[in-house]
Structure formats: structure tokens, C-alpha cells
Amino acid sequence: MVKTFTILLCLIAFNVLLLGCREKDFERNSDGSISTKKYLWGAPVNSGSYMATGLRTSVTYEGDILAPYATGIQYLTSYTDRGGIVRLDGETGKEKWRWAGYMFWRELFDINYVYLRNNYLVIPSGPRTHCVDMNTGKTVWQKWKQDTVYTNVRISGIGDSYFYAGRREYEDSSGHMALYKGNVLRPDPEELVVNPQLPKEFFGRTPIPSGAAVTKPVVIKGDTMLIVDYQRPTAQAAYNYIRSVYGLYNLSKKIWVYKDIPLIEPHPGSVVDHMPVIYENKVYHAVGRYITCHNLLTGESVWDRPFAQDFLSSGFIVAEGLLVANCEDTYIYGHNADTGAEVWREKSSGTSTKLLYQDGYVYYAGGGDGLLHAVEVKTGKTEWKLRSPDLAKNSGAYFWGMVSALPAKNGKRGKIFASTGLHIYAFEAIR
User: In sequence order, which residues have a C-beta less than 8 Å from that of residue 426 and are 6 or more positions away?
Assistant: First the structure.
């Protein structure tokens, strides 16, 4: 009996000790969210006085991630450089290759959208398009864009085709954005595929670009369709009144299924900010301070909701029947994707990286607070508000710029990766 009691006490003591060790792996904020957490690895990506910037979207490939790194070559100011891209092993953080094959002086250095087709990564960058082999990090091709030196950097694709909006000029010096298609496998000149008809009498009255803004390809009944968002100038264009509309274009048959569907009523700044999202035969848009929902097949409006501010930085995701959006009003919202009804709202950071969904949670780095957030989609409960491990070294090295993830696999939790400008840190995901 005494022996059994002694063994029981030893087991209790061991469990208490184990729990204490686990608690030391993280600390909590006053609201119960985790504030510091032991990271799996940290990979340096800065160069001297320059912090890593450039890549601002999640790109994963065969268990690895792409991340920004600082090249040390000055770009526009004394604190920004011509950033590069590095492939890191998802398990160890070990560098596999670096690519710095872009950054001609007129090119953009913020990469918010890319298109990955098998091992080929297509990157839009100002007046050029680049294709990189993900296996080797070598440039496959680079080419100047057709008709324009200015393009929208929001790229999308399907199969071997990629799409972007570029400014098309006319003999009378007027111009507007049109939609172009390129081939991932060949550096052929991109071809014009959609050129929305707009009221030319209002051109030149506003600095806001008119015409095609973004496109999202989708296959419907065997045909390749393009959701095309575009902006029509109005008689009040001088006051930046823009009518944001969209249509569904059948690329296979080269006809419009429907077009000129209003997203919201014209008002200043009512422009399409992000790529549309398709979910269960509905299409969702963020337009200024509104989020809208339409029937994908007919263009019929299902619902729209106004907010106090816009979603310019973070955009939104749709998952598990909820639309989750991080607003500039410093709240993150969860709305029923079918009805638009608010399910929950929680205090957030305002400005942030793009939202990233994985295994029941949405992750993002808050530009307003510099923390790495993790929010449960179903409930809105904030599980993480992680502080950057680099703040002790550099007050500007908070979490920002890029958040990436690898999903759970073989019974192991997934991984979350975030940039501080000095390092890329890997954390075990919540699931």
C-alpha cells in the first residue's frame, strides 16, 4: 500500500513538472491569448542596415516556403533595397536557393500576388513579368509587358495561362486598363483578351484607373470563365466617383455571360481592392468600405454589407461557411457567407498582412500592433498575439510583411511562418 501511494505521488509530481515545463514554452496576455511562444527555428534574411521586404504573400512548394530577403542593393530610399526571394526548408529553415533576378529601376518591389503552376512561379513586377523555376531558383524567362509600362500587380491563373490587367493606350492619348493573358511555359508576348467598353467622355477626369482591375478564372461546365472586375468613370469622375462593376466572361467561347453588374453605388474611393473570392457558387468582393456577395452563375446580388473602414491591406477569406475580414477600423469580423449576417466581431490590429486560413484558424501579422495573430474562424476567439523575438534587437523588427503556412500532415500539427524583416520564424500551428 505504501509502495503504491509512493508511486502515485511520483506520477503526480512528474505531471506537475511536465506541465511547468510546457508553461515555460509560452506566456499569456491579460486577455488569455498567447503573447510569446517558443519558435521551431529562425532564419536570418536581412543584410546590414536593410530589412527584408518584397514578398508579401504565402508561397509553398514541396514542404518548403518562399520568403523575402534583403539583397543589400539600395532601391528607392536609404532604408529600402531591391529585395530578393529565398526558398527555405520548412522543417529546418535551411536555405536552398536565392533569386534576385528582378528590380529593374522602374519595377515594383512589393509582390502581393504570384501564380504557381507546377514548378513554375510567375511574378508580375511593374513593366515586366518573370518566371522562376521553383526547383532551382533560376530564371526561366523574363519579358516586357505588351502595350504598357504600368500594370496592376494582381495576377491570377488557370492551367498554363496567367492573367493581369494592364493599361492600354489609344491614338488620342486616352487609355484604360484591359485584361491580358500569357503562357507560363513560353515567353510569348501576352495577348489582349478582354477590353471593357467604357464611356470615353469621362476619361482623364480622375487619377483612379478605369477599366479592368482584376480577374479570377474558374471552370464552369467545361468552359474557362473569367470573373472580370472593372471600374467605369462617371460624370462626377473629377471628384473620384467611380462605378465599380463586374462581369463573367466565357473565355472558351469569347462571349460575355453577363457584364456591368454594379457592385455598389458610385462614391469616392469605391474601387475594387482585392481579388474576388469564389465559394459555393457565389462570388465575393471587397469594394471600398463594402463587402458584396453575388450569385456566380447569374450575377444576381445576394447581399452587401457596409463597414466603418475598408479592407485595403488585409482583404478577406471565406472558409467554414464564414466570411472573415480584418477591417481598418481595428476589428476583425465573421459573417455568415450565405446571408451576410454578423456572427462575431473581435478587436484586432487594423492594418495587417493578407489573411491566411489554415486548419480552422486565420493567421495574420498586424501592421497596427506588430503582433502575429491567430483567430479561430468558428468563434472569433483570438488564440495568439505573439510579439516578435527580434524587438529586443531592433524596435522596428516586429511581425510584418509576410505570413505563410504549411498544413498538418501525418498526425503532426502544421507550421506558421512570419517575417520580422530580420528573420523568418517558424512556429508550430494550433492544429
Answer: 39, 40, 41, 42, 90, 93, 415, 416, 417
